């Protein structure tokens, strides 16, 4: 009898705890924000709005769209509906977690530029942690400072110049493969995935794509698992007792990635020990190893830190740049007048020679095209933060741990900022700088973020893209293939759901 009584008490306590977390706290926050004029869709017990978000995303992916650059409603159908119903800031629920969606520029500036650490990154969701560990994208505080320092040195301007020979030979490798497709249709996003993988493997890790292939493939598999499990409700702590097949597979991948990256690290150490090289190197891997062996214990980073940071760079360096290159080639294939302008500029500056760093800096039309491509098709679609404590934000009072999400594409496609031609591809809108293009609106254009967490690889990505595009333009004219189906969607970054098919024509044969 006593046992049954205890069991009953235990069940009542557990029930009350669940009720407190999943009903009482959400209702309180909902009421708190509602009383300040923030509205949003109805919160559903346990699931929040996760099911509707997933359902609308699935429906959007089932049918392609017309060939237009007005992609916000296709990529973020739920946000699109909410903005039209509730206005520029609204509250949604990811399970029991409230998330304030912010598209007002003053608030965005305040969140991203805040120096008092009021808006750190959100606590990392378990699956994302499997992918990126606690590397510089996800970490905070002292750990972030150490990691950011290493990355800043690794991707510094002078070091970029040293990457030029590797960049050229990697693009040449790709163009060699393209010879087989001359006069025919080819899909380019997979090509750019190989290109950016080879680039990051060589420039950051002193290896090559084949050596790192295993790591890239496993990270890609993990990214697919993340997307499949995002927004699915799970009772907290349940994975300790019950693992789904995705949990098991992702745990296995995490272990294998760890081992594979350790091998890359050990190989560099062995080279140094065996006298093959006389320093650990000044590339990203070399700098990580130096930080690991730092005489000052406070600056030292652990083996796990090194592995996490390598994962971050393998993934961040490849996914985003692939997306940028793929959408830029798509835009140039569609808007052949701009393709011609870009080509003329490349010939004027580089002739038929390989570009050098100074040439790349002179490619003004190319820079405009890349800006406009990143505006219409930003590879990173949103930024997340949370309120560290109860905080005042743009006239609102937020409770601690309220998640914040800034959908970059909403700002990039706002006609009030960009004007009536907002959905048109018009690179010349940037010809007098970003400030003029945005009608002097700040926090209106930020494909690489804003503030202290600004993208560390921004220079690497844009330089690499300019080299690749110049060398492609020197050799080929291309148009969009009739088989192309327009369906931009989010799988971590902004991707073409069915690839990007172009028809490739060698210049000399025209
Ligand atoms: C077109 C290409 C790229 C785009 C659009 C892009 C975009 C971004 C954005 C928006 C952020 C800010 C995230 C935030 O504030 O929450 C970011 C951060 C970051 N990016 Fe990139 N990125 C690109 C290329 C790269 C490359 C090539 C690398 C590495 C080689 C890289 C490494 C990072 C890292 C480590 C961070 C975290 C910085 C920090 O939190 O301190 N990115 N990126």
UniProtKB/TrEMBL annotation:
Record's bilayer topology term: Single-pass membrane protein
InterPro entries registered for this protein in UniProt: Cyt_P450 (IPR001128), Cyt_P450_CS (IPR017972), Cyt_P450_E_grp-I (IPR002401), Cyt_P450_sf (IPR036396), Cytochrome_P450_Monooxygen (IPR050665)
Subcellular location per the Swiss-Prot or TrEMBL entry: Membrane
GO cellular component entries: membrane
Superkingdom, taxonomy of origin: Eukaryota
Single GO MF descriptor: monooxygenase activity
Entry binding sites for heme: 455
Cofactor(s) the protein requires to work: heme
Cross-referenced Gene3D superfamilies: Cytochrome P450
Keyword Transmembrane set for record: yes
Keywords per UniProt: Heme, Iron, Membrane, Metal-binding, Monooxygenase, Oxidoreductase, Transmembrane, Transmembrane helix
Family as reported in the entry's similarity comment: Belongs to the cytochrome P450 family.
Protein's UniProt name: Cytochrome P450 oxidase CYP749A86
Taxonomic path: Eukaryota, Viridiplantae, Streptophyta, Embryophyta, Tracheophyta
